[in-house]
Design goal:
By secondary structure, the chain is an alpha/beta fold. It has two domains: 7-150, Rossmann fold, CATH 3.40.50; 176-297, Elongation Factor Tu (Ef-tu), domain 3, CATH 2.40.30. Helices cover 32% and strands 27% of the residues. The protein is built from nine helices and 13 strands. It has helices at 19-35, 62-70, 84-87, 91-102, 124-134, 153-162, 165-172, 188-192, 277-297, and strands at 7-11, 38-44, 76-80, 105-111, 137-141, 145-146, 149-150, 176-183, 196-199, 211-219, 222-231, 243-248, 259-270. A hairpin with a 2-residue loop joins strand 10 (211-219) and strand 11 (222-231). The termini are far apart. The relative contact order is 0.12.
Length: 300
């Protein structure tokens, strides 16, 4: 059997694939080229804390995370299930059985805070010692900072949940977004003269506060400026739970069931009830103007 190492692997969960993650992934691609290995990333479908009931809301779905990882020069995304069997492995078992024997890693690249193995006991220092003894090339990337603080998924999540979309986008390196298939709504926007598309966000994702946002909507190869409302549409007392509803400017195609991505650029105003449909219509016209300005002012 040929057991020659074949992969250089980035290790991490990579939620959000933010600027710090990008530095690890790009270093992996660079290391792979230098050593003649295949650039890969090893991650999990589920957040490791989900096994113990403490997973945070995520910045990206597993599918979107894989797409973003692949966009950084990574040829192979190894998406594993994090179950109790996997969680019970010691750090040494993870290094030998998973990295060395199963995935034939000739190099691994991590962030300086990476932890692995049972009870998160493994550290980059242990990986360097034990992996190095097997012949693995081990690279530890320093944290990327912004404003003197590390760029992290936790920091970005807090910004998103507080409505700080522009700062969150700067740390991500792209706008925070929500994706999903376009669903049928109640056509209230159409009656107001502002027809909208509706999507139901993944329930496991972080969400910004209820309100109105300047946005861009990606439909296949087309990008359309938009105004997006996240909330419960209080003016008409519709109920029915949370909705993500976008008015697409200069766009009139039917796109039901198509999957779209909504980039949220800037918080414009809180969601609120209006005394009449006319009052809401007038406010939407103002929101459109504010959203158009944001298209030019937000550089991401």
């Amino acid at each position: 059997m040929n057991d020659r190492p074949i992969r250089a692997v980035a290790l991490g969960f990579f939620d959000g694939v933010h600027r710090g993650h990008v530095s690890i992934l790009q270093k992996t691609a660079e290391t792979a080229r230098a050593l003649g290995l295949r650039p890969a990333a090893l991650t999990f479908r589920q957040h490791p804390r989900s096994l113990f009931g403490g997973a945070p809301p995520l910045l990206t779905t597993a599918q979107r995370r894989a797409e973003l990882i692949a966009g950084q020069g990574i040829e192979e995304v190894l998406m594993l299930d994090f179950d109790r069997g996997f969680a019970s492995r010691t750090p040494e078992q993870f290094i030998v059985d998973v990295l060395w024997k199963t995935y034939r890693c000739g190099a691994v690249v991590t962030g300086e805070n990476y932890r692995f193995g049972r009870c998160a006991q493994g550290t980059p220092e242990l990986l360097r010692r034990e992996g190095g003894a097997l012949g693995m090339h081990v690279v530890t990337c320093p944290a990327v900072t912004d404003g003197g603080l590390p760029v992290s998924s936790t920091r970005i999540r807090r910004l998103v949940e507080a409505g700080g979309l522009e700062e969150a986008g700067r740390l991500l390196g792209r706008p925070f977004s929500l994706s999903g298939p376009v669903t049928h709504g109640r056509r209230v926007g159409r009656r107001l003269g502002y027809p909208t598309i509706n999507l139901a966000p993944d329930p496991g994702l972080a969400l910004p506060p209820h309100g109105v946002y300047a946005a861009r909507v990606h439909i296949a190869e087309q990008t359309v400026p938009a105004v997006t409302n996240i909330g419960v549409r209080p003016t008409f007392g519709e109920g029915g739970g949370l909705s993500v509803e976008s008015y697409l400017m200069d766009f009139d195609r039917q796109i039901y069931e198509q999957t779209v991505r909504v980039d949220l650029l800037r918080f414009l105003r809180p969601e609120r009830a209006f005394p009449s449909a006319d009052a809401l219509r007038e406010q939407i016209a103002l929101d459109v103007q504010s959203a158009l300005r944001a298209q030019h002012e937000v550089s991401l």
